[in-house]
Design brief:
There is one protein chain. With 388 residues, the protein is mainly beta. The protein has helices at 12-18, 20-27; strands at residues 32-35, 38-40, 44-45, 48-55, 58-66, 69-76, 79-85, 88-95, 98-100, 104-107, 112-117, 120-122, 132-136, 139-143, 146-154, 157-161, 164-169, 179-184, 187-193, 200-215, 220-221, 224-237, 245-249, 252-253, 261-264, 270-274, 277-278, 286-289, 304-310, 313-318, 323-330, 333-338, 343-350, 353-354, 358-359, 364-370, 378-379. It has a six-stranded parallel barrel with strand order 7-9-12-15-13-10. The radius of gyration is 26 Å and the shape is elongated.
Amino acid sequence: MTTKPKITSFGKPFSYLKDPELRRKETSDSLLRIEGALFSGEHFEDVEWRNINFVSCDFVGGYEISLSACVNVTFTDCNFSGVLSWGDTLDVRFLRCAWIGQSVMYGERHSKNTVFESCDFRGTSSDKNHWGAVGTHGEALFINCNAKWFNLDGNAKLGLQGCVLEDVICEPSRKYGGSHVTIENCKLRGLFRMAGGGTLVQSLTIRDTVLENLDLFNATVKEDVVIERVRGGTLKISVKEGARNFVLKDSQIYGDANAICSVYAGAFNTLLIENNIFGGGPGKRTGIGGGFEPGDKSPQPVLTQSLVFRNNKIPSLRSGRLNAAQVLLEGNAIDSLELQQGRIGSLKIVGNTISRSVDFTNTQVKESNVQSLANGQAKLEGSNIKLN
C-alpha cells in the first residue's frame, strides 16, 4: 500500500499498543498519537486500544488485528485492506479513510457512537461474493461517504447521511436482533438491497433521497417503513407479514424498464400512500396488494386494518387480493384501476379521476361507497360492490 515504516519501529508507541497496562502505568492513558505507520504482519489480539489518534496509517493483513475493544479512538486519512476486528467500538471515528477490495472490518455487538465520515469504500468486483464489508454488529453511522460493491452494516442501528452509494447491500442480521435504519439525503445508485430471509429490520426510514432500486424482498420488518420525499426508480417492499405501518409520501417513483413499485399490503397493519407521482406506461403497474388467498377455503383473518391512497397520480394501479378492514381511495388521478379478488370490510372510492377501466372482479366487500363511473367502465363479475 505504501512504504511507510512498520509500527514495530515506533518504540514506546508500539509497546503501548501491545501492552495497554504498561501504557497506563507510564502515561495514565493520556492521548497517544501515531502517524504514518504501517500495520502489517504484527498481531494485536485481545487488547484494548483507548485514547489514540491514528493519522495517515495503513492497516493491512488478515486476522492479525483482533482487539477486545476500541474506545475513544480516531482514524484520520488511514487506509484499510484485509480482515480486521476492533472488538466493541465505543466513541470511534473514521475520518477520510479508505477501504479497498475485499476488505472486512467490524466492531462487535456493543459498539456505539461509531462514525464513518467522508470515507471511501471501493470493491473491485461486481461479484457479491467478493464484496467488502464494513460496520459494526452494534451501532454505526456513515456521513458523506462513497461506496461501490460493498456491504455497510449497523446490525443494531444504522444511519446513512449524505452518502453516495452504488450497488450496496445493507442486510441487518436477525442474529443480532435487527436494526433501526435511517437513510437521509443520500443517492442510492444501482441496487440497494436489504433483502432475504436472514434480514431483520426493526424500522426503516428513508427521507430526501434519490434511489434507483430499493429491494426489501422477503426481509422481515418489525415496526414501520417510512419513505418520504424520495425520487427515483423502483421499490420492492414485499416483506414478510408482521410489520406495523407503511408510509409513502410526497415522492416521485418512476420505475425502470421492468417495474415501478411493489408493496405487499398483507405485511402491514396500516398503509398510507399520499401525494406521490408514479410513472409507468401500458403494462407497467404500481402494485400494492395481497394477503387474501382465493384458493384457501378456511377462514382468513384480516391482515391489513387500513389502506389509504390519497392525492396520488398513478397511471395503472393494481391493488388486488386485499385482505383489509378498510380501504380508501380519495383524490387520486388514475388511468386504470384493478381491485380484484379481495376481501374488504369497508371500501370507499371518492373524488378520484379514473379515466379508463376499473376492475372489481371477484372482490367481496361488507360495505362500499364508490363514486359514479361511466357506463361500462367497471367490471363487476363475481363482485358484490354496488355502484352509485
